[in-house]
Amino acid sequence: MSLLVWIMMGIAVWHFTIFVPDRFWGGIVGAFLAASISAALFGLLVNGGSIPGQSDTEITQALLAIPGAAIGLALSYLYGARVDRQHGLDHGQTRAGSH
User: Fold this and answer.
1) Phi-psi category of 27—alpha, beta or left, where left has phi over 0 and alpha has psi -120 to 50?
2) pLDDT in tens, 15-73
3) What predicted TM-score, i.e. pTM, was given to this entire model?
4) Whole-Å CA distances, 68 to 12, 41, 92, 98, 99
5) Where are the domains of the chain?
6) Are 38 and 66 in contact (CB under 8 A)?
7) Alpha carbon distance 2, 98 (integer Å)
């Protein structure tokens, strides 16, 4: 049950990516996957590689997925922005790209 909670919290955090420019590796779908997968992996890591069952799932399981999703989104954003710069894509970062 906690795995479902972790993934759903990753999706909830993903919804906030509309407030930042789309420089995620893989676009918005890449951001979705990064948030969902990293929230689940972080939850597994914090729980020692095990998935708590239904009776062990509490609010703390939902809250601990937030840093995992944020870390995954940050890594996806940084890598995507770097790849875009290497390929010469601007996305409006400079005055010339804002028109």
Assistant:
1) left
2) 999 998 889 999 999 999 999 999 999 999 999 998 888 888 889 999 999 999 999 99
3) 0.84
4) 12, 7, 29, 33, 36
5) 2-88
6) no
7) 44
